[in-house]
Amino acid sequence: MAKMLVKILMFCFPICIIAYIVDMPLTLAIRQSQGGDTQVWNDIIENKIKSDILIYGSSRALNHIDPFILKDSTGMSAYNLGLSGQNFTMMKCRHDLIMSTRQVPKYIIFSLDPFTLDKRDDLYNCESFAPFLNEKIIRDATKKFKGFDFFDYNFPLIRYVGMGTEIILGIKQMLHLKYKKNTIFPRGFSPHYEMWNREFEKVREDRKQIDFADDSETVVAFEQFLDNSKKNGIKIIFVFSPVYKDGQSFIENFESKKKYFAELAKKYDLPFLDYTSDTLCSDKNYFFNSMHLNYVGANIFSKHLAHDVKPLMGLH
Amino acid sequence: MKLQNLFILLCSYFFYGCWDYRFLLLLIFSTYLDYFTGKKIAAARKKSIKKTWLLISVIVNLSFLGFFKYYNFFAFQFASILDFIGLHADVWTLKLILPVGISFYTFHGLSYVFDIYNEKFSPREKFMDYAVFVCFFPLLVAGPIERASHLLPQVERPRHFDYAKSINGLRQILWGLFKKVVIADNCAHYANMIFNDYRTHNGATLFLGAIFFSFQIYGDFSGYSDIALGVARLMGFELLKNFSYPYFSRDIAEFWRRWHMSLSSWFRDYLYIPLGGSKVSKAKQVRNTFIIFMVSGFWHGANWTFIFWGMLNAIYFLPLLLSENNRKNVNFDDYLSLSFMGKIKNAGNIFFTFFLTTIAWIFFRSPSMTVAFGYIMKMFSDHPFGRPNVFPVDILLLILFLVIVEWKGKLNHFALANFAPKYFVLRISFYYLIIVLIFVYSVKNQQFIYFQF
Fold this sequence. Notes:
The structure holds two protein chains of two kinds.
Chain A lengths: L1 H32 L2 H10 L7 E4 L2 H6 L2 H8 L3 E3 L7 H13 L6 E5 L24 H7 L7 H5 L9 H11 L24 H8 L9 H16 L3 E6 L4 H6 L3 H14 L4 E3 L12 E3 L2 E2 L1 H18 L4
Parallel strand pairs in A: 1-2, 1-3, 3-4, 4-5
Antiparallel strand pairs in A: 6-7
Helix pairs in contact in A: 1-8, 4-13, 5-6
Chain B lengths: L1 H19 L3 H20 L3 H38 L17 H16 L9 H9 L1 H4 L7 H9 L6 H34 L6 H32 L17 H7 L2 H12 L9 H19 L3 H19 L17 H26 L3 H13 L11 H16 L15 H18 L12
Helix pairs in contact in B: 1-5, 2-3, 2-4, 2-5, 3-4, 5-7, 8-9, 8-16, 8-17, 9-14, 9-15, 11-12, 12-13, 13-14, 14-15
């Protein structure tokens, strides 16, 4: 038995050593080889985001608000930090990273959703966080979700198990081989080119309505964020971007959610732009599902938004 | 030994409880039922009393299996029949969770009582030993389906650490992991992609999708079996071999002697032979063959696709049975003495058998008969020799790697059983290569297919 244990240890020893040595270069290579969310995380960490206007929110912010249109209209540079599948908890993580780089924006356009203050247990798109677990702020934020386990946090390379494509791209990057980077988000923006995809009809076959409950901890964190932003001189603009009309009635507490955000806006003296009654909301051609505008809708909406925020920023 | 068995039993219950502790009671009840009826059968003097206890065990065991696995299937079929004759019925279906491994542990228990009834085996006094035989964790959820006469004597004697066997066990675990994590899970990704959206792909892609599924199910199930056998060997047990390079078979009869061997032999011993086996007229042999294959299909799942899969295999088997060629190809040893032309012929037979098997797997994989036939029709009619729209070169190379390694090791108990390159560095490098491949190609959240059976 002892002989076998010794042999196993001797067999594993080089693996452990190599894993520790390879972890950092592979992590950097994966970061460099990926587009999408990873590229946005890179921009934040590498202090490349020096925009006056930052767009916060979920995939609805990511897909809906075109920073180039905002820039053309306001003359101020903008960057979209919308994070797909996430509510305020992970958005706060991005905000904390931004603040740690001391690149304080002038304006934050906060795209609100019915689920902004909701709590989800799982870490959506968990893999995209793997190369950033050595960043304390991201590491701490991910610990609030079921995504990574003890081994992922404490042992080299384990967090990349199941990420074959990313590893191979990373290796190609390390070896300076040719490869195709996945989708690039220009200034964080990711328009969606699909037309109405009938996902909503499928969901409605199973459920008549859904509702979102606020998580008390997230609510407190959100109010703290509003308070601190005010103290730091950051002007926040609340935006409720279009939701397809049937999608609005599908969410049981849709109106009360909006009402709550309107009250918060009043409490913190923030402008609240609500587009849920916009004409866009009654035409499926502008959406790819009930919650998300497609690129046509996003283009029209971004122009509306750019026009509406100008006076709020003192521009004419 | 008592402590060894107690430890294994507790580990096995813990392992099963981790999935769903509520079904532990069912497992314990099923175990006790067969232990108890086994004793009663042996103690009974009259044949009729023995038969009564056997029937109690069979009926209760199959009732549990039928209730959890087949209730909804029969409820739907009943409603469809009523619908067909113009009577509308709201079927009362249940959202049942299928207890993991129920098909496996039920068959373990049944083999024990059958063997006692046939006086091939005497009942065991110690419940713990019997419980270890039924619940031994490496084989509890997906086999191999053990026989009391093979495993129980190993449970009853003390086990000592054996260096050579343990190293061999580790090697088999490593190869099993490769087959599951690298081959099966990656093939699953492409097979799912193609099968789920088969209408949008051309024939060549659908053919590739079917091949991916063939390797998915092989990698998945034989990989699990390798892991189970390897883990058991580490603890001093030798489990029944479940796979013996089935895709190198030269005809369907040989394939079924090499695929899921523990289930095939179970059906042979407890169903085919009691039905008369091959010692009856040709007509009855044909009937028995169809019964065996269709029951085997139904064992895999409550769907017409599984039954048809079984029937299709019976149809494949029929010409061999009628021409009495079903035992023509038994061992791989004769490969070595073949002439060049003989090797070419053998290769042709292997490819043809693989082709037939792959066609049959389409029924196994499809959610319904309509989808399966639609898939096959499109596969042969829409540019079957065209360029596939899905062609993952790296996965195909990994499949080729698997085939080469298995071909090289086909005369051994498992592919790496006698893996001993001359140079130590080569051997170690090969193991590291497998570990790197497992790391790079592992896919998250892929279940073992056979857990659902």
